[in-house]
Amino acid sequence: MLTVDFQRFRVTPGERIMDMGCGAGRHAFELYRRGADVVAFDMDADELAGVETMFGAMRLEGEVPDGASAQTVQGDALDLPFPDDHFDKIIASEVLEHIPDDMRAMRELLRVLKPGGQLAVTVPAWLPERLCWALSEDYHTAPGGHVRIYTRAELEAKLKSTGFRVDGHHRAHGLHAPYWWIKCAVGVDNGEHPLAKGYHQILVWDIMKRPLATRVAERALNPLIGKSVVVYFTKPATPSKPAQAPKETADAV
Q: Entry's InterPro entries (predicted)?
């Protein structure tokens, strides 16, 4: 289940691209299939072990274009172990909401991205996330969980203040927001509740079969209740003077 739109975030074979906070690797795998030289970066060694295994399986199955490469790197988003101007593109999907010092992480993303390079950031959208927090304390208080709810305006303002240029946005996963509201209402760990289990089966069917009915429904729901907001940025070729960092508010979605 991809959140970044690869029609907007176009990948050219041979580009060096980092999936920062890659988790289980869903975007890293797509980058690899498209011929990029991929760095899957995360703090979690267990997650990275699974990603490394999948990279190997993709090579064995012939899913990877000739010349593409992939590696996993463990480290801290606040101190990326890469030189300045190293990557052509970066994806940071569903990770900044976990990082207390998000501005420092944003500055690191700017540092390691080449001038003219593109950044795609996804975070939980404000309204769906606000409802999850209201329905369940367990949803956001677990260790390593979400520490903030971004408005799109705040996310864009913070990255602009770091030095990025905003290139556009969209919402994704409109079908998934109700699932998480159900989970929060019945218990985030109660996967066997009939409502949660039934809705999960619908999501699996949608992901595996991509039927027309759910595709149309998701396109209609995305602008209203899309679970994630995706914003695209560019690092200017000529550095601009960073603006003052904004205060964290919830006055715009």
A: Erg6_SMT_methyltransf, Methyltransf_11, SAM-dependent_MTases_sf
